[in-house]
Amino acid sequence: MTYDRILAGITPLLLALGLMSCGHSPPELIVPGVSLQLAQWRRATLEDVSYRLFLSIPTGQSEEIEGKIEVAFRLSDNSRALQLDFREDPQRIDTVLVNGEAPDWRFESEHIVIPPGALAVGDNGVEIAFRAGSSSLNRNPDYLYTLFVPDRARTAFPLFDQPDIKASWELSLELPADWQAISGAPLAQQSSAGERKTLRFEPSDPISSYLFSFVAGRFDVLTREVGGREMSMLHREPDREKLLRNVDAIFRLHGQSLDWLEAYTGIDYPFQKFDFALIPAFQYGGMEHVGAIQYRADSLLLDEAPSDGELLSRASLIAHETAHMWFGDLVTMRWFDDVWTKEVFANFMAAKIVNPAFADINHDLAFLLRHYPDAYAVDRSEGPNAIRQPLANLNDAGQLYGPIIYDKAPIMMRQLESLLGEEAFREGMREYLSTYAHANADWPALIAILDRGSESDLAAWSEVWVNSPGRPVFALLSEEGAELLEQHDPADKGRVWPQGFSVLAINEAVKGSFFLRAETARTRLPEPLSVNPELRIFNADARGYGLFPASLGDLDNWALLDELERASLLLNLYENLLEGRFSSPADYLDQLTGLIPGEDNQLLLQLMLQQLHPIYWTMLSDAQRESRAPVLESTLWNSFEARSGASQRKVLFDAFAGIALTPEATRQVRDVWSGELLMAALPLSERDHIRLAQELAIKRPAEAESIIAAQLAKTTNPDEIRRFEFLAPSLAADRSVRDAFFASLAEERMRQTERWVIDALGNLHHPLRTAHSADYIPASLALLREIQVTGDIFFPASWLHATLQNHNSARAVAAVRTFLDANPDYHPQLKMKILQAADPMFRAQRLVPAQ
What is the DSSP letter of 406? Predict the structure, then answer.
């Protein structure tokens, strides 16, 4: 019986015994993870929890980290055993003392179980000496950082690992003397002894366990005062010019975000300090640890001449993580079924924050391009998920994350704000934050607050937008002489997504825009929209959500459209292409190729290029691709040379390098990479050269070995050298070397730096290698459950996308279908992730012409 089936058998038993309720009776069964029922009982019986944690971090990466944790709490019910969470080998526990005594404790199913007789009603203290687990300590040769979301603190040390037990943390670290460290509270004391030093931090504000963190290692520290607030940045960037080019903007953007959030919420920054660390190969763009945000270094330290999109993305990321200090850190969800609330608030507020700083950017356009494509990618798939999903155990919480949380939820929130009005929405958010400050809340609690200021039934509205998956499909039909826009539920459940959006009509080169409120299954179009228009663009203002009618002929009026209308049309066309509503991906590729030279808006240009890449590599036959390659290469190269701005030139050159297929085009890329061809206004960073080396090693296999050696020789950043050495086997021309490297990924130690693994999988599954790499798909799917257990929250989805996104063969599709058919009881959330990641492959296989 598999682990999944054991849990599936336990859940009905708990329901039958009435143990899944919020009552005070503790669980009779001790199960792996942190079950909802265990969490509810602990929340009902524990108060005033605090931790004192000491860790001794050795110089050597492989040496054990010795630790001690003291847990203080008040207990209201000592009739049953108390469970502390520790997902590690019980041999790592050295001693356990409860209220100064050594109890008859036991270890069971990832828990330290303390008998009732050792506990008192009232104040208690537990002291545990242990050797820390390392899976979530992210240890590198000369630095480490914690990453505990959603329930991975328990992989490092024992604690009550659930979001609604907020606790104060007092951290002490013994470190090599030349290491720096930050945590979520100010440094209280530092002492040195030879080659070691000890840092003791002040007690933190009350925070959830997943938000506790520290970063330690050989970092440089920059401290600035911004708006009267001191903040420090840890970094490892050896390129001083790159650092100086970015540092002022990084501090300024944090200061602007803090000022805006204080004004919007009416609440001063709610924690003791505000620092951040820039970490190479960090798993996410950023993580909102209280007062000590962690970022992936290259998300903030941009290369020379960054694009508008890159600048906006950096500003949005900083605003997003800063917004979390209020939305997620100050007020935290009760349970991870509402993890999406903190993410939607952060994303939604980030979009508001960046507007003043980027006045020249069309923010409606940016919102559309940032959120809609990824949200549609999930909702169109065979495995869509609702924004709010049920969660029985925190060990599955990581699989709730994804584009629906980060991309569909902000679209929904914008609909909600439109429904309420901006001022009523803001007042509701202020009441929510002040009511639940330093505590926990759930989505129904917020809806209850907002509902008081609304004439709509927000609970019913939330049921379809928040609690159910999918998107509506819109179609035109005629009835009794009237033209109607019908909203169809693809799941045939009769759902209607209440929403409003505009429709653009063009008649004889005269434009008119009309706002539709689609509250029912059928909406009558106003007469100007139904009298033989030359063009209609549905959702022209990018306020609606769904699959809207579109046809390739709509592009004939391209010159009459503004930026947002163009983007909405391209998005509608791409979605209709994937649905098979017009016959030839090659025709759409030809249209995009013709539009690229004349498009000056960089965000629109990037959308075209993002659509072009999968069409070119996965939806064309080999013959179609080979016949179009010279024209497309020439178009991109000539457009690149014709632009004067460095950022647009960079965007176009990157696209050219990505699609380069002919010997002449790959030679041009090689000459730019090697420096033989010097291009004006094309700044290439060390990371750019490594990326080009990867493309070249794959596309010019006879030169792969020399390209890899040359790139290693000219790379100077030690973190980049380690990364490229890891990637090198995935670039090898010899299939047996690639096979051996892929096989090594079955070892957990080889997956320690997840960003490197994803980059390596991209090389293994490059479009030019899919005939061979399809052999890896069954083993990759078989590893998925282990990857979910041992990896961070985005790793399973990233693993799947890197594995499947470039395939289009019947053999690859069969590998996925066979796996799912052979595992009918497979983990439901991971099954959804597989179906989401496989959706482009399923559609490409149907669209690509027979070879």
Answer: I
Q: What is the mean pLDDT of each run of 10 residues along the chain (851 residues)?
A: 31 33 55 96 97 97 96 96 97 98 97 97 98 95 96 98 98 98 98 97 98 98 96 97 97 96 98 98 96 97 87 94 98 97 94 84 90 97 96 94 94 91 95 98 94 85 95 91 91 94 84 89 80 80 96 92 96 97 92 96 94 98 97 98 91 97 98 93 93 98 98 96 98 98 97 97 98 98 96 95 98 98 96 98 94 67
Q: What is the pLDDT of residue 24?
A: 47
User: Distance between CA 733 and CA 705 in Å, rounded?
Assistant: 8
β pairing state of 122-131 and 66-75: antiparallel
At 563, list the tokens: 């930026």
The pair of three-digit structure tokens given for residue 803, joined into one six-digit string:
């594995």
Which CA distances in Å does 609 have to 509, 596, 658?
Answer: 28, 8, 10
Distance CA 501, CA 571 (A): 15
> What CA–CA distance (Å, rounded) separates 141 from 654?
32
Residue spans of alpha helices (H) in 118-194: none
Contact present, 484 and 525 (Cβ < 8 Å): yes
Mean pLDDT rounded to a whole number for the chain: 93
Separation of CA 382 from chain center: 20
Question: Structure pTM?
Answer: 0.91
Whose tokens are 């439901």? That residue is 828
CB-based contact 169:108 (threshold 8 Å): no
Structure-derived torsion over alpha carbons of residues 491, 495, 501, 505, reported in degrees to the nearest 10: 60
- Give the whole-angstrom CA distance, residue 216 versus residue 181: 4
pLDDT, residue 527, reads 75
Q: What three-state secondary structure class fits 635? A: helix
Q: What three-state secondary structure class fits 24?
A: coil
Please report the pLDDT score of residue 509 as a whole number: 65
pLDDT at 681: 87
Alpha helices (H) along 676-776: 686-699, 704-714, 718-731, 735-744, 754-764, 770-773
Contacts of 465-470 with CB under 8 Å at 24 or more apart are 465/387, 465/412, 465/415, 465/416, 465/497, 466/386, 466/387, 466/388, 466/412, 467/386, 467/387, 467/388, 468/386, 468/493, 468/495, 469/379, 469/384, 469/385, 469/386, 469/404, 470/379, 470/384, 470/495
Q: Would you give the DSSP letter of residue 387?
A: S
Residue of 130, 203, 245 whose CA lies nearest to 685: 245
Closest CA to 180 of 190, 168, 188, 194: 190
Going through 202-258 in order, the beta strands assigned E by DSSP cover: 214-217, 220-226, 229-235
Q: What is the DSSP string of 256-312?
A: HHHHHHHHHHS----SS--EEEEETT-SSSEE--TTEEEEEHHHHSPPSS--HHHHH
